[in-house]
Amino acid sequence: MNPLLGGQGSDATKRRAVRRGLIRTILVLVTFAAVSACTSFASGPSLLDGRAQVPTANGSSIFGSIPAGEGYHRHITGISVTDDAGQAIDQPFLGGFNIPRPQLIDIDGDGDEDLFVQETSGKVMFFEHVPEAETPFQWRSDHYQGLDVGEWYRFVDLDRDGDHDLLAEQPFSYVRYYRNDGTRQAPKFVQAADTIRDTEGRAIFSDRQNIPNATDIDGDGRMDLLIGRLEGTVTRYEETGTDRSGVPLFELVSDRFEGIEIVAQIGSLHGANTMALGDVDSDGDQDLFWGDYFEPGILFLENTGSRTRPNLRGEPLPFPTQDPLRTSGYNAPTLGDVDGDGDQDLLMGVLGGAYNPNTTTADNFHYVEQSRPGLFEQRTSRFLSTIDFGSETIPIAIDLDTDGDIDLLVGNKIEQDDTQNGKLYRLVNEGSSTTPSFRYDGDLDVGGGYHLLPAFGDLDADGDLDAIVGTWSDQLRIYRNDATDGSLLLNFVDSTSIVLSRGRNATPTLGDIDNDGDLDLFVGESSGTINFYENTGTPQSAEFTLVSDEYGDFDIGRRSLPVLRDADGDGDLDMYVGSESDGVVLFRNDGSRASPSFVQATKLDVEEISFAAPAFADLDGDGDDDVLLGLGAGGLQLYENRKR
Fold first, then answer.
1. Using alpha carbons only, how large is the chain's radius of gyration in Å?
2. Which residues of 182-220 are buried (b: 16+ CB within 10 A; e: fewer)?
3. What is the bridge-based pairing of β-strands 80-82 and 437-443?
4. Considering only CA atoms, which of 444, 421, 510, 450 is closest in space to residue 27?
């Protein structure tokens, strides 16, 4: 076998050269430091230091921070991040958005409309509206009151007692009812029925991919339930009274409410749909907005009738009528006064429909302001300011510029404006080792492809960091660092020496697992197992030989993402493994530095998420590992280690 870094490579078209600043210290993929993420340390600086208490609907808390798991504190804010235009990112560590489903309501009775957003199944996020604040919609929770909302939710005053109740999906396709047994200022939701029923006692169904709505559409003081159907029609139920438990009962009025039949732009197709209702033109009646899987924008049906005699039989019009929005389809609108000027604005989440959802993985949360009566203008496609690189982000903590503090690389699955490739984004730390401040700084060029993930290490003993890059394929690319001045000059060497024996989506990590002075290679892949390649060469001339494609019988389901780290401070390398649906699992090395023996220990005790790609670094200089998680939604979550 030839040394991996022994030649320049004969194919000039494969050569990649990039000078992107200085690199000296790798803190995630190569480190052999015995700093424990689980050991107690003396009290040191915290990302919370100097943070002010702010009032919330549920008492006071620190804006952008909440305890999460055993010994961790989750931060939404607390570290400054600026984008490539120099603009501060308000709430950088929300985790990103792929399929935001928003609703604006005044949940705390303070006269302004708060924001709820569903991004994942079963949970709804809560953002309190603080109108005079620099960040007017402030994160409070990823899982509001612990309520299970299935695939959709809708706050409505179903029992007409002056406060908001909640309708949500009860699997599969039932309409669950949470009654607000609190007050308008301090809501408390209690499940009153696992499904809403009609007057005959039959369960009312709403296809789980359709988001219904409820309002008093005809002004008679009784709630109407409107359910979009896959055929493009709307079913209307009207409340007739309550059952013995006080749960409203509904009577079917029409399966073709107002003769509505939405026919999409692709032939005569119909599909999953959403709707919003509101008096957008201030004429006293309820207008209707419709989003559809096969519709690239939002359709507006003006109510040309009155508050008591609705008429929604006009032609559905793309909205805004003067400059219609166009997305990948399946758009979820909500109406409310976003800017506090007394009129109705529109927020719209893009769930992704028939027009290539990969093109809206980041620009998917639109704000359309009613700037004057009847004139609607789009203000942004990223209403909540946060780190969002599309989907399936994987962070790497590394000192890119040799200044002694932590910088970041963040890989994504695919670029929304280049659906043939992903990127490795650079976030340079312009702060310090105890007070980081990150700035977007372009990307690191390691060639094209999806799911780019480099493992850095000195593979030829010349004192700098070379790279092994995993992609969506089964081949790993090898780059030699030919810089002589401490900078990074990566030159492509080979992509055939290391090929997975099965599976794809290679996720490499490097470390000296057998204590022989050279770096060995572990590679995760799509089936969830771990591949182990022993370095049978030397520190000067690495040669990787496959030992096992099912190393240690590891299997975390799908999409294994290994990271070597001394988690318990005993001087040997343990392994954290991220996954597609099972969080981050720690496999503790109960062997030694030279003879490892991995035993599954525990999950990383942070919030329950699906796709999770971990990176570890001491971001606040207090001597322990903090955690960054890459997520399926394209952003990052930050967990400060507070185990003291």
1. 27
2. eebeebebeebbeebbeeeeeebbbbbbbbbbbbbbbee
3. parallel
4. 510
- Residue 370 — left, alpha, or beta (φ > 0 → left; ψ -120 to 50 → alpha)? beta
Three-class SS of 183-202: CCCCCCEEEEECCCEECCCC
Block residue for tokens 């942070």: 606
DSSP labels, 280-306: TTSSSS-EEEEEETT-SSEEEE---S-
Taking alpha carbons only, the member of 137, 128, 124, 140 closest to residue 176 is 124
Token output for 286: 């309820």
CA 396-14-543 angle, 5° bins: 65
pTM of the entire predicted model: 0.90
Q: What is the pLDDT of residue 27?
A: 35
Q: For residue 352, which amino acid is it?
A: G
- Digit-coded pLDDT (tens) for 567-601: 999 999 999 999 998 899 999 999 999 999 999 99
Length of the chain: 644
pLDDT of residue 16: 34
Per-state percent for the chain, helix, strand, coil, to nearest 5: 0, 40, 60
- Cα–Cα distance, 587 to 441 (Å, whole number): 34
Q: What six digits make up the tokens of 118?
A: 């569903």
pLDDT digits (tens, 9 = 90+) for 276-299: 999 999 999 999 999 999 999 999
233 φ, ψ (degrees, to nearest 5) = -100, 175
Task: Dump pLDDT digits (tens) for 194-228.
Answer: 999 999 999 999 988 899 999 999 999 999 999 99
